[in-house]
Design a protein that fits this description.
152 residues, alpha+beta, six-stranded antiparallel β-sheet, 10 strands, elongated, binds zinc ion
Length: 152
């Protein structure tokens, strides 16, 4: 199947349903972000999408290996923890129907984080859910004081 080379305007339009909360770039490609959690006192979680859209041309790269990639980032007071979820591929190939597959993957990531949940910490911060590397286990850790809160 042919790889689609969409522009940044097309990407915005075709994924508007996500309700993006930020757009920026990493010096090479455009990145879109959807905040999915806000503790109200400094801890947030966002789903990050690396679009494969080149910042110079404004168009998706022409090689098939540059897929759209999804990850999660927790942030708190200057700390951040980014991760991918191992239970499913974290990328979407840019062939026909990519918008639906991307929405589906975002929903999966969102649902997984929500299912694992958050916990208030005695320090006033929030313990966030993080998957253990090379495992399907998750744990919570406070991003403010680093206290381990156990498996979740
Ligand atoms: Zn804490």
């Amino acid at each position: 199947m042919a790889v689609e080379r969409f522009s940044i305007e097309q990407f915005r339009k075709r994924t508007a349903k996500v309700g993006w909360t930020a757009e920026y770039d990493d010096g090479a490609q455009h990145i879109f972000e959807r905040q999915i959690y806000n503790s109200g006192n400094g801890t947030t979680t966002s789903i990050i999408v690396h679009t494969s859209i080149d910042i110079w041309s404004g168009v998706a790269r022409d090689t098939a290996k540059d897929s759209i990639r999804v990850s999660v980032i927790h942030r708190a007071h200057g700390h951040e923890r980014a991760f991918k979820i191992r239970e499913r591929a974290h990328w979407v190939t840019r062939t026909a129907g990519w918008e639906e597959r991307l929405l589906d993957l975002i929903r999966f990531y969102w649902g997984k984080v929500k299912e694992k949940g958050y916990e208030r910490c005695e320090c006033g911060g929030v313990a966030v859910p993080i998957p253990k590397k090379k495992s399907s286990k998750w744990y919570r850790v406070c991003l403010t004081c680093d206290e381990w809160k156990g498996w979740c």
